[in-house]
Design brief:
Number of domains: 1
Number of strands: 3
Strand order of the largest sheet: 1-3-2
Largest sheet: 3 strands, antiparallel
Distance between the termini: 39 Å
CATH class: Mainly Alpha
Shape: globular
CATH architecture: Orthogonal Bundle
Number of helices: 6
Helix content: 55-70%
Order of helices and strands: HHEHHEEHH
Structural class: mainly alpha
Strand content: 5-15%
Length: 159
């Protein structure tokens, strides 16, 4: 049973919409996870870490990777250790901080990530292929409104 199946017609439309969003996210993510595993023998967290590094050619400190990925430092360390062992990332000292490392993609890691990113893009495009360009633009705009409201609420909660 998916998340959306929990909703009933007497529930507010907003709750039913929330559950549909969760269900869609989970279904697409499940497809992506399976395809990454089948095609590249990798996981979504490894892909996500490499994506962060691809956006930062000079590399990122482990703490910054952890913050960007919204996971614990231990999770980042475990994934990084695996990728280092495979020659996909390397660790370099951070000047002025003997306790910190900067992690960056190796040329081999950058090449593999580019292959994975192209496939990932195709999979996501296919997941939305039943929507017209106009539908996607409308959905993007509407979700942007929800995002703005959620960000404003999180700022007011922090005060």
């Amino acid at each position: 049973m998916d998340m959306e199946a929990r909703a009933h017609s007497e529930h507010p439309e907003a709750l039913r919409l929330w559950l549909r969003l969760l269900t869609c996210t989970q279904l697409v993510e499940k497809q992506v996870r399976g395809r990454l595993r089948e095609r590249f023998d990798t996981t979504l967290p490894r892909f996500d870490l490499m994506a962060q590094l691809e956006r930062a050619p000079d590399g990122l400190k482990m703490s910054e990777l952890s913050r960007r990925m919204m996971v614990t430092g231990g999770n980042v360390t475990g994934i990084t250790d695996q990728l280092v062992a495979e020659g996909l990332v390397d660790r370099v000292d951070v000047e002025g901080d003997r306790r910190a490392w900067r992690v960056r993609l190796t040329p081999k890691g950058r090449q593999l990530f580019q292959e994975m990113a192209l496939q990932h893009e195709e999979w996501i495009v296919a997941a939305f292929s039943t929507l017209s360009d106009k539908d996607m633009a409308t959905l993007h705009r509407l979700l942007g409104k929800v995002k703005e409201q959620a960000l404003a609420a999180s700022v007011s909660q922090a005060d």
